[in-house]
Design a protein that fits this description.
The protein is of the alpha/beta class. It is built from 9 helices and 7 strands, in the order ααααβαβαβαβββαβα. A 7-stranded mixed beta sheet has the order 1-7-6-5-2-3-4, sandwiched between helices. Helix 1 crosses helix 3. The two termini are 32 Å apart.
Length: 228
Amino acid sequence: MKPQQIRDMLAETLDDRRFSRGERSAVSRILSHLDPDPRQMANYRSMAFKLARGVIDQTNSTDVLEWLEEVVKLLQQPVSDAPTDSAEALFSPGDDCPRRIRGLLAAARRSVDICVFTITDDRLSSAILDAHRRKVKVRIITDDDKSTDRGSDAGRLIDAGIDLRMDRSRYHMHHKFALFDDSLLLTGSYNWTRSAAESNEENFVISGDKRLIRPFAELFERLWQQFV
């Protein structure tokens, strides 16, 4: 992950002038993967100060300074202290779910395996495409019926060269899970759609527990071979 991507991620957490628990966990995981040296950590702290200076004014000074304090606390702790197998739960409607998924996609370095009923949220599709451009190996399994719905991004992702397979049956491929670098699992009711983010009561959990990751990874490989 390039310094500009770290900056963009920090800027995104500053949008609502708070550094949420989910955002803290996401940044911690990214840092644990990157394993930055002290000079790089100092550079990240400098980024945070520059971001804060760019938005602070008399109306938001307290919120911005609280955000900065929380970010700097995180960026001062040893990377080895970052959680590696913690779990978290997120709920919609709201912006936390798509923001968290985009963060996971941005942090991926080797592989992303996505198995979801439908993908229509352009924000998530753009993040998938960004990962693909960074040479992250992206594979997607989705439902054949939903791939032709208005707003589906399946065709856009295929046209970009991403490996995408469909079930091609009269039944539905109704799973909603994703694996990031074979080290994090995301699963729940949440479809990757605007309605899931903005209207529906949905959920997903993120876990680094290998006891959960392993069977989902095996399922993905089985479906991947089945839907050739």
